[in-house]
Design a protein that fits this description.
There is one protein chain. This protein has a single domain, classed as 3-Layer(aba) Sandwich (Mannitol-specific EII, Chain A). It is about 40% helix and about 20% strand. It is built from 5 helices and 6 strands; from the N terminus they run E-H-H-E-E-E-E-E-H-H-H. The chain has helices spanning about 20-35, 40-55, 110-125, 125-135, 140-155, and strands at about 10-15, 60, 65, 65-70, 75-85, 95-105. The termini are close together.
């Protein structure tokens, strides 16, 4: 499974307005709800917030990758937000976040979920990739940026 197979124009936003980490996560869960896949938004919210309470998902360099495994989704789901203004995610480097990639996986597909999480982290730690994401002007451009990077770094079968 490829990152780009999880993203579409409804699950990507380039100008999300939010003042807090919780508000960012809430809006992104609403984005997931627009997917044709089924989810229980309340259970997803609980799983994501519980995971966030365990340890920050702000990995540094202006990026957060909130994630959780739950039985509340019919399949692995993702949303990506470029925030209008940086938000405090209690990141490892104490810097606010502008790029947020939310990944919600199934308990029964842990291997795929972990592989995707690793791929996301590998791509998003590249300064040039982050710069391209922040310069994107449409969700389609964000998805294309991910597609190009996936093709460059990972075998696309």
């Amino acid at each position: 499974m490829h990152i780009t197979s999880l993203l579409n124009e409804r699950s990507v936003t380039i100008d999300l307005e939010a003042g807090t980490k919780e508000e960012v996560l809430e809006k992104m869960i609403v984005m997931l709800g627009k997917s044709p896949k089924n989810l229980d938004a309340a259970q997803v919210r609980r799983a994501v917030l519980d995971r966030e309470a365990m340890a920050t998902t702000g990995i540094g360099e202006g990026v957060a990758i909130p994630h959780a495994k739950t039985g509340a989704v019919s399949d692995i789901m993702a949303a990506l937000a470029i925030l209008r203004d940086p938000v405090d995610f209690r990141a490892l480097d104490d810097q606010p976040v502008r790029i947020v990639f939310l990944l919600v996986g199934l308990d029964s597909r842990v291997g795929t979920y972990l592989k995707l999480l690793s791929r996301i982290r590998r791509l998003i730690t590249s300064a040039s990739f982050r710069k391209r994401l922040l310069q994107a002007t449409t969700p389609v451009e964000v998805i294309q940026t991910f597609r190009e990077e996936e093709e460059r770094y990972f075998e696309m079968a």
